Amino acid sequence: MPNFKLELVTPDAMVYSGEVTSVSAPAEEGRIGILAGHAPLCCTLSVGEVFIREANGQIRSFVVGDGFLEVSGNTCRILAAVGEPVEAIDIARAEAAERRARERLKARHEQDFDLARAETALVRAVVRLKLGRERSSKRAR
Hints:
Blueprint: E1 4-9, E2 14-27, E3 30-35, E4 41-45, E5 48-54, E6 59-72, E7 75-85, H1 91-106, H2 115-140
Parallel strand pairs: 1-7
Antiparallel strand pairs: 1-2, 2-3, 2-5, 4-6, 5-6, 6-7
Protein backbone atom coordinates (compact mmCIF):
# COMPACT_ATOMS: atom_id res chain seq x y z
CA MET A 1 0.00 0.00 0.00
CA PRO A 2 1.43 3.47 -0.88
CA ASN A 3 2.73 5.71 1.91
CA PHE A 4 2.17 9.37 2.67
CA LYS A 5 3.52 11.78 5.28
CA LEU A 6 1.58 12.44 8.49
CA GLU A 7 2.29 15.31 10.87
CA LEU A 8 0.41 15.60 14.18
CA VAL A 9 1.16 18.99 15.69
CA THR A 10 0.01 20.74 18.88
CA PRO A 11 0.94 24.25 20.06
CA ASP A 12 3.57 22.61 22.29
CA ALA A 13 5.14 19.93 20.12
CA MET A 14 5.40 17.88 16.97
CA VAL A 15 3.63 14.82 18.43
CA TYR A 16 4.20 12.61 15.38
CA SER A 17 5.90 12.90 12.02
CA GLY A 18 6.38 9.93 9.76
CA GLU A 19 5.35 7.81 6.82
CA VAL A 20 1.97 6.08 7.15
CA THR A 21 -0.37 4.04 4.94
CA SER A 22 -3.63 5.17 6.58
CA VAL A 23 -5.14 7.59 9.07
CA SER A 24 -8.55 7.41 10.75
CA ALA A 25 -9.62 10.55 12.63
CA PRO A 26 -12.68 11.88 14.51
CA ALA A 27 -14.02 14.60 12.19
CA GLU A 28 -16.94 16.67 13.47
CA GLU A 29 -19.26 15.07 10.92
CA GLY A 30 -18.06 11.54 11.71
CA ARG A 31 -14.94 9.41 11.42
CA ILE A 32 -12.83 10.06 8.33
CA GLY A 33 -10.29 7.77 6.67
CA ILE A 34 -7.28 8.98 4.71
CA LEU A 35 -5.17 6.92 2.29
CA ALA A 36 -2.37 7.95 -0.09
CA GLY A 37 -3.67 9.95 -3.04
CA HIS A 38 -6.64 11.39 -1.09
CA ALA A 39 -8.22 14.48 -2.61
CA PRO A 40 -7.28 17.80 -0.99
CA LEU A 41 -9.33 18.28 2.15
CA CYS A 42 -9.66 20.41 5.25
CA CYS A 43 -12.03 19.50 8.08
CA THR A 44 -12.52 20.17 11.78
CA LEU A 45 -11.79 17.46 14.33
CA SER A 46 -13.61 16.54 17.51
CA VAL A 47 -12.09 15.21 20.70
CA GLY A 48 -11.30 11.55 20.10
CA GLU A 49 -8.85 8.92 18.96
CA VAL A 50 -6.73 9.01 15.80
CA PHE A 51 -5.55 5.65 14.48
CA ILE A 52 -2.59 5.41 12.13
CA ARG A 53 -0.98 2.52 10.32
CA GLU A 54 2.70 3.23 9.93
CA ALA A 55 4.60 2.24 6.81
CA ASN A 56 6.04 -0.75 8.73
CA GLY A 57 2.48 -2.00 9.46
CA GLN A 58 2.42 -1.00 13.13
CA ILE A 59 -0.87 0.52 14.32
CA ARG A 60 -0.63 3.43 16.76
CA SER A 61 -3.27 5.61 18.35
CA PHE A 62 -3.31 9.17 19.65
CA VAL A 63 -5.87 11.17 21.55
CA VAL A 64 -6.59 14.57 20.00
CA GLY A 65 -8.68 17.46 21.18
CA ASP A 66 -10.20 20.00 18.88
CA GLY A 67 -8.37 20.95 15.75
CA PHE A 68 -8.12 20.56 12.01
CA LEU A 69 -7.08 17.89 9.55
CA GLU A 70 -5.66 18.95 6.20
CA VAL A 71 -4.72 16.79 3.23
CA SER A 72 -2.61 18.42 0.56
CA GLY A 73 -0.40 16.66 -1.94
CA ASN A 74 1.10 13.59 -0.30
CA THR A 75 0.84 15.01 3.24
CA CYS A 76 -1.81 14.84 5.96
CA ARG A 77 -1.48 17.39 8.77
CA ILE A 78 -3.40 17.28 12.02
CA LEU A 79 -3.24 20.55 13.93
CA ALA A 80 -4.81 19.99 17.33
CA ALA A 81 -5.11 21.90 20.60
CA VAL A 82 -4.24 18.67 22.43
CA GLY A 83 -2.53 15.54 21.16
CA GLU A 84 -0.64 12.67 22.73
CA PRO A 85 0.02 8.98 22.15
CA VAL A 86 -2.58 6.88 23.98
CA GLU A 87 0.22 4.91 25.66
CA ALA A 88 1.52 8.16 27.20
CA ILE A 89 -1.73 9.01 29.01
CA ASP A 90 -1.17 9.33 32.75
CA ILE A 91 -4.35 7.94 34.37
CA ALA A 92 -3.88 9.84 37.65
CA ARG A 93 -3.38 13.11 35.76
CA ALA A 94 -6.44 12.42 33.60
CA GLU A 95 -8.54 11.69 36.72
CA ALA A 96 -7.37 14.97 38.27
CA ALA A 97 -8.28 16.85 35.08
CA GLU A 98 -11.74 15.28 35.13
CA ARG A 99 -12.26 16.32 38.78
CA ARG A 100 -11.13 19.89 38.01
CA ALA A 101 -13.45 20.08 35.00
CA ARG A 102 -16.43 18.86 37.05
CA GLU A 103 -15.63 21.39 39.79
CA ARG A 104 -15.49 24.15 37.18
CA LEU A 105 -18.90 23.15 35.88
CA LYS A 106 -20.33 23.37 39.41
CA ALA A 107 -19.21 27.01 39.47
CA ARG A 108 -21.15 27.86 36.31
CA HIS A 109 -23.12 30.64 38.03
CA GLU A 110 -20.02 32.70 38.73
CA GLN A 111 -19.35 35.84 36.75
CA ASP A 112 -17.12 35.43 33.67
CA PHE A 113 -17.80 31.67 33.53
CA ASP A 114 -17.04 30.13 30.13
CA LEU A 115 -19.46 27.20 29.82
CA ALA A 116 -18.18 26.02 26.42
CA ARG A 117 -14.59 25.92 27.66
CA ALA A 118 -15.56 24.02 30.83
CA GLU A 119 -17.62 21.47 28.87
CA THR A 120 -14.78 20.97 26.36
CA ALA A 121 -12.32 20.40 29.21
CA LEU A 122 -14.62 17.77 30.70
CA VAL A 123 -15.10 15.96 27.38
CA ARG A 124 -11.36 15.99 26.76
CA ALA A 125 -10.64 14.61 30.26
CA VAL A 126 -13.27 11.88 29.97
CA VAL A 127 -11.97 10.76 26.56
CA ARG A 128 -8.34 10.72 27.77
CA LEU A 129 -9.39 8.72 30.83
CA LYS A 130 -11.41 6.22 28.79
CA LEU A 131 -8.63 5.66 26.26
CA GLY A 132 -5.95 5.49 28.94
CA ARG A 133 -7.91 2.92 30.93
CA GLU A 134 -8.59 0.83 27.82
CA ARG A 135 -4.88 0.86 27.02
CA SER A 136 -4.00 -0.13 30.60
CA SER A 137 -6.45 -3.03 30.61
CA LYS A 138 -5.05 -4.32 27.29
CA ARG A 139 -1.52 -4.24 28.73
CA ALA A 140 -2.69 -6.15 31.83
CA ARG A 141 -4.00 -9.07 29.76
